[in-house]
Amino acid sequence: MITCNLEPPLLNRPLYVSGYIRNHKISHMLLDDESVVNMMLIKTMKKIRIPTDELSKSKLLIQSFNQKGQKVIGMICVQLEICEMVSSSIFHAIDAKTSYELLVERAWLYENGVVA
Fold first, then answer.
1. Fewest beta carbons less than 10 Å away: which of 2, 17, 36, 110?
2. Which residues have a Cβ under 8 Å from the Cβ of 48 and sit 6 or more positions away?
3. pTM for the full model?
4. Residue 103 lies in domain
5. pLDDT tens readout for residues 7-24
6. Domain of 46: which CATH number?
7. Spatial separation of the C-alpha atoms in residues 78 and 104, rounded to whole Å
8. Confidence of residue 2 (pLDDT cuts 50, 70, 90)
9. Coil/strand/helix, residue 85
10. How many domains are contained in the chain?
11. Residue 4 domain-assigned?
């Protein structure tokens, strides 16, 4: 008898980690080795009390998985802490509904020796 496992293999599941920005815990950081930009949601900025006037201007338009363009509201450089690793990182602020609070991109992973 042939059985079919409908549960996706562990290798295909998204990798979420927890960390800190400005001493605020971020529970849903998505490590995405296919993304080319770090993204922070506006709701995450509000959670960690980053006012929008701290954002630098940006004209970037992010092409997302659903093929719709997402205009970046601005950019900010923050210290991202994951375990003992601390790294200054530029995040592009967006207003979107996602399953993550932060998206950490490919170059950041490689620069910091993280294997997703």
1. 2
2. 21, 22, 24, 26
3. 0.80
4. 15-111
5. 555 556 678 889 999 999
6. 2.40.70.10
7. 13
8. low
9. strand
10. 1
11. no
